[in-house]
Design brief:
Elements lengths: L9 H6 L8 E8 L4 E8 L3 E4 L2 E10 L9 E12 L6 E12 L13 E9 L9 H14 L1 H13 L11
Antiparallel strand pairs: 1-2, 1-7, 3-4, 4-5, 5-6
């Protein structure tokens, strides 16, 4: 039953994907009173206060790339500072504490008349993902800013479209 010190920590966890402390979750926050939506980008264990609401993220998870359907979830806690009744002073109240899932928002919802909270993304990698997508993503993003890869399709569009063909190119 006894484990060696450090045996159940980040070394085991890092074999299976991004360590919990390095995962980044994006949470959507809607204030229904003034119709303001914000994206809160936080690391696991971080809390963020926006007005009278505090959103705390314990961790996030996502399914392996080959698993279907793809799922993203986060363990979220939501605290709201409000009056319990008309004569009571402002006090912090736990509104929600549990897992929220991106693809199944109705499975577990934050029920509050003013605030709505949902999971948008969990940034984490699994072994083997680092090698393949990164070079492809960097190659495509490097081609667009240089203008060489995007200039050819842009030049082809005016010749294919009669409405844009009469316009002379700016020189």
């Amino acid at each position: 039953m006894a484990q060696a010190p450090g045996a159940a920590g980040p070394p085991i966890e890092s074999k299976f994907g991004t360590p919990v402390k390095d995962r980044v979750v994006t949470i959507g926050l809607l204030n229904k009173r003034n119709n303001l939506t914000q994206d809160l980008v936080m690391k696991s264990g971080e809390a963020r206060r926006v007005g009278n609401v505090v959103v705390r993220v314990a961790t996030c998870e996502r399914t392996l790339p080959w698993e279907t359907p793809p799922e993203v979830g986060a363990f979220v806690q939501v605290y709201v500072e409000e009056h319990a009744d008309a004569k009571a002073p402002l006090a912090w109240r736990t509104v929600f504490s549990g897992w929220l899932f991106k693809n199944s928002p109705s499975l577990n919802t934050v029920e509050h008349p003013v605030y709505d909270v949902w999971v948008k993304d969990c940034a984490m990698k699994f072994p083997g993902e680092e090698e393949d997508p990164a070079p492809a993503a960097s190659a495509s993003s490097a081609a667009n800013p240089s203008g060489s890869a995007s200039a050819a399709p842009a030049a082809a569009k005016p010749s294919a479209s009669p409405s844009t063909a009469p316009k002379p190119p700016a020189t």
